[in-house]
Automatic annotation (TrEMBL), chain A:
The keyword RNA-binding does not apply. Keywords: Amino-acid transport, Cell membrane, Membrane, Transmembrane, Transmembrane helix, Transport. InterPro entries: ABC_transp_permease, BCAA_transport_permease. The keyword Cell cycle does not apply. This is Branched-chain amino acid ABC transporter permease. Belongs to the binding-protein-dependent transport system permease family. LivHM subfamily. The lineage of its organism: Bacteria, Bacillati, Actinomycetota, Actinomycetes, Micrococcales.
TrEMBL record, chain B:
It comes from Isoptericola chiayiensis. It holds the Pfam family Peripla_BP_6. PANTHER family: ABC TRANSPORTER SUBSTRATE-BINDING PROTEIN (PTHR30483:SF37), LEUCINE-SPECIFIC-BINDING PROTEIN (PTHR30483). Residues 47-392 form the Leucine-binding protein domain. Keywords: Amino-acid transport, Signal, Transport. This is Amino acid ABC transporter substrate-binding protein. It comes from the Bacteria. SUPFAM superfamilies: Periplasmic binding protein-like I. Belongs to the leucine-binding protein family. Residues 1-32 form the signal peptide. The keyword Signal applies. The lineage of its organism: Bacteria, Bacillati, Actinomycetota, Actinomycetes, Micrococcales. Coiled coil: none annotated.
Length: 294, 416
């Protein structure tokens, strides 16, 4: 093992952590605003990746431009899904039933992707797919850098939106205490709908970023949902900065552990972290008073 | 009392009569089955039903669909030519979702409930082993297109036959011989191996790895990754860091593509690169941006092979699909040919004793197929080695062995 390899792994870990952070942010947002466990999040992620691939396939234009369509589309689908499906669940059993409901949605999406585009494994080929930039001895793939940049930018925007806009304040108030938010005049139903839409919009961005550097197939989403769920629990359910931090830590951890342990064992870091969190600090390591109430 | 018992007796007698009628009917049907045989009388119009479970979704969906195309082409061509034993064949294909539990359920259902006449195997060792066990329990002949790892033949299966030229460990034999025959100082000295945690993928890669290690080459990286791995950058980083002269990938499809792209992103340039399965896939070249030059891959099948049934198969298949068949399609077709040869020779296709006769016939005979003449040892292991192909001038061509060569092996491999 050399220093270069360690540094290279660290860089790869940061790049991977960035993508995890964006995806986990969306997932934790659903839980925050709605107490919904959104199993279909990664299915939407793959759907977005397929849309980016299809867009590139049909037009030959850079898949990043598909965001212009997919982000508003996913936002609308998210709002629609919250208003039409999630709110029909009884509040008492909402969290548990949302697992079933979104599981069904995930299966539906996977099936539809397979139906429309077949199970053939797809990959976007760009002129810069194999290119990389030298960075202090480490090679950074351009596509990974673009994906990371996209993730960082969207997370930054999400942060600004939540911290510095009236809507963001309303959303955070809804996350913190729904009844109190209602008492001060926030229309929590509408806010929750928009929150759900924003969560799904992160899946659109994440999926497009993913499509730049991954071979995609309909059942790929099952490989993503496990680590993402672990990340949001470690980060503290409902806490976006917590999810982002946990994603970074676990992403880098996975990448570094791969050097001595190999791929198989490095994957277990998510589940080890999950168990450790549940045993030692069930409310999560970074913020998140929310989970204490469950 | 007597008044009360009389009707009961009568009823009982009626019951007995009914029972014996039913029994007679059963005996009669049984007789007609035995006597007239299934190729005459009532059975003549009935198609021969072949039960198959394939991974049409999930991890193996890509090759699974290839196998499906091969089976369907076989059935269609056979039916156009008049069928098997004068009967049409009908395929009953279920989707096991690449799941080993599902595949067991599927074959149980096909054999016990649907009473299919014959079964064909699924794709890949992970699914072949559990399903072969089911077939073995029911005494069914089990010819399979894709279970090539050593463990398939270590289970003591007596009804299993692998319908391809060689098992996984022997795929790279020609390449291993070629490398070891190179003069010292010229041949690669260090080798990096990365393989999916999958019996078939590991079989191919480790067959070559072990032969090279025995020949004095140094194995500097030996990585195993689970089948659900999608991020290959860390493995590529390790291989790049070792700066090995040669890289061997025990791969299926998406893992090879992702690993190669990751290696390209790190600007790792080996002298020799060999990957199982993926390079023979028609999607492969475009998936890695046509930077394929010099990539080696073993193949059990090539459309250009001149075996008589292959020439016909390629022509008809191309007419049907607009593109020539790949290895998965060919192996599936071979499975059909092997079973058909046995059925024609023995003259039966149904559950029961017939299956054992089919098994016995295959153990003692050679079958001409699209991948050449096949024969098997007592474990069902075919007796041969795979051709080695390489991307030369943008096309995948046979480079080893010499008597089948379409192009000279390129070494060292051009940069990708």
């Amino acid at each position: 093992m050399t220093g270069t390899l360690l540094f290279q792994s660290l860089v790869l870990g940061v790049l991977l952590g960035g993508l995890y952070a964006l995806l986990a942010a969306g997932l934790t947002l659903y839980f925050g605003v709605m107490r919904v466990v959104m199993i279909a999040h990664s299915a939407f992620l793959i759907l977005a990746a397929y849309l980016a691939w299809y867009f590139h396939e049909q037009t030959g234009i850079d898949p990043l431009l598909s965001l212009v369509v997919t982000v508003p589309l996913f936002f609308a689908v998210g709002v629609g899904m919250q208003r039409l499906l999630i709110t029909r669940l009884r509040p008492v059993t909402l969290t548990m039933m949302s697992v079933l409901l979104t599981f069904a949605v995930a299966l539906f999406i996977e099936g539809m992707i397979g139906f429309v585009w077949s199970g053939t494994q797809r990959r976007i080929q760009l002129p810069y797919s194999g290119d990389s930039i030298e960075f202090f001895g480490a090679q950074i793939a351009v596509v990974k850098l673009v994906a990371f940049g996209l993730a960082a930018l969207s997370l930054g925007l999400l942060y600004l939106l939540l911290k510095h806009s009236r809507f963001g304040q309303a959303l955070r108030a809804t996350i913190q205490h729904r009844e109190a938010a209602q008492l001060v005049g926030i229309r929590t139903d509408r806010v929750a709908g928009y929150g759900f839409g924003i969560g799904l919009a992160t899946a659109a961005i994440g999926g497009t970023a993913l499509s730049l550097d991954a071979t995609i197939y309909p059942s790929l989403h099952w490989h993503w949902i496990g680590p993402l769920m672990a990340i949001i629990v470690v980060g503290g359910l409902g806490s976006i900065p917590g999810a982002a931090l946990a994603a970074m830590v676990l992403g880098i951890g996975q990448s570094l552990l791969q050097v001595p342990l190999g791929t198989t064992w490095a994957q277990t870091i998510f589940y080890v972290a999950l168990f450790a969190t549940l045993m030692l600090r069930p409310q999560g390591f970074f913020g998140g008073r929310l989970a204490q109430r469950f | 009392m007597s008044l009360a018992t009389a009707p009961r007796n009568r009823r009982r007698r009626g019951l007995a009569a009914g029972a014996s009628l039913a029994a007679a009917a059963l005996v009669l049907t049984a007789c007609s089955d035995d006597g007239a045989g299934s190729d005459e009388g009532a059975g003549e119009d009935d198609p021969i039903v072949i039960g198959i479970s394939l991974p049409l979704t999930g991890d193996f969906s890509e090759p699974g669909k290839g196998v499906q195309r091969g089976y369907e082409a076989w059935a269609q061509f056979l039916n156009e030519d008049g069928g098997l034993l004068g009967r049409q064949v009908e395929l009953k294909i279920l989707d096991d979702q690449s799941n080993a539990d599902r595949v067991v359920q599927d074959y149980e259902a096909l054999i016990a409930q649907d009473q299919v006449d014959l079964v064909f195997g699924p794709f890949s060792t992970r699914l072949v082993v559990p399903s072969a066990r089911v077939a073995e329990e029911y005494g069914m002949l089990f010819v399979e297109p894709a279970g090539a790892a050593a463990e398939v033949f270590e289970q003591g299966f007596e009804n299993l036959f692998y319908a391809a030229p060689a098992v996984a460990d022997d795929h790279y034999n020609y390449l291993a011989d070629y490398i070891l025959a190179m003069p010292d100082g010229e041949r690669p000295e260090t080798v990096a191996v990365a393989s999916m945690d999958d019996p078939f993928a590991q079989g191919t890669a480790y067959g070559l790895r072990d032969k090279l290690a025995d020949g004095g080459l140094e194995i500097v990286v030996d990585e195993v990754y689970p089948p659900n791995t999608t991020d290959f950058a860390p493995i590529a980083a390790k291989i790049d860091d070792s700066d090995a002269d040669m890289v061997i990938g025990g791969t299926q499809y998406q893992d090879a593509v992702n690993l190669i792209v990751s290696l390209q992103q790190l600007d790792y340039q080996p002298e020799m690169a060999a990957f199982s399965t993926a390079p023979t896939n028609p999607e492969f070249a475009s998936a890695i941006g046509d930077k394929t030059e010099g990539i080696l891959s073993p193949t059990g099948y090539t459309e250009t092979a001149s075996y008589p049934s292959n020439v016909e198969f390629v022509e008809r298949y191309t007419e049907l699909h607009g593109n020539p068949p790949g290895e998965d399609e060919a192996n599936a077709y071979t499975t059909g040919q092997v079973v058909a040869a046995a059925v024609e020779a023995v003259g039966c296709a149904e559950q029961g004793e017939c299956q054992q006769q089919l098994v016995d016939w295959l153990h003692s005979n050679e079958v001409d197929t699209v991948v050449g003449p096949l024969s098997w040892d007592e474990t069902g292991k075919p007796q041969g080695a795979h051709l080695i192909q390489q991307y030369v001038d943008g096309e995948i061509q046979i480079v080893l062995p010499e008597d089948a060569m379409e192009a000279e092996l390129v070494f060292p491999k051009p940069a990708w």
